[in-house]
Amino acid sequence: MQYREKKLGSLISPNSRATSLSYQSPKKKSISPSKRKALKIAHRAPPQARGELKQSIRQEMEKNSECTDKQKIRYLISEGLERIKQLDEMLDMQGH
């Protein structure tokens, strides 16, 4: 990190107010616990279905990410948790 600071620091003119630069990684998007749980359960699916299942989970979450209606959000969360539970049970029955 010192090397990076020195390298970036040399790009700043001596008259600038910044005395040092520190590297800041780009902010990661946080993943909701329900999405994390769904993707973890989807990883147990058979390999030929895993990719499509993960993609549909991501698409469903993206599709509803802009919702601001509290009642609809509660419904979507409860519906999503129920679907996660059903997927988990189905994979258990199949031995995955």
Helix-strand blueprint:
Elements: H1 2-9, H2 33-42, H3 47-63, H4 70-94
Helix pairs in contact: 2-3, 2-4
Description:
This protein has 96 residues and is mostly helical. Helix content is 62%, strand content 0%. It contains four helices and no strands. The protein has helices at 2-9, 33-42, 47-63, 70-94. Helix 2 packs antiparallel against helix 3 and helix 2 runs parallel beside helix 4 (70-94). It is globular, with a radius of gyration of 22 Å. Residues 1-14 and 16-20 have low confidence and may be disordered.
Q: What are the secondary-structure elements, in order, as H or E?
A: HHHH
Query: Could you estimate the helical fraction of the residues in percent?
Result: 55-70%
- Unreliable spans are 1-14, 16-20
Evaluate the radius of gyration. Answer: 22 Å
Strand share of the residues? under 5%
Task: Summarize model confidence as the mean pLDDT.
Answer: 77
How would you describe the shape? globular
| Count of separate DSSP helical elements | 4
User: How widely separated are the two ends?
Assistant: 44 Å
Major pleated sheet: none
Briefly, what is this?
The chain has 96 residues and is mainly alpha-helical. Helix content is 62%, strand content 0%. It is built from 4 helices and no strands.
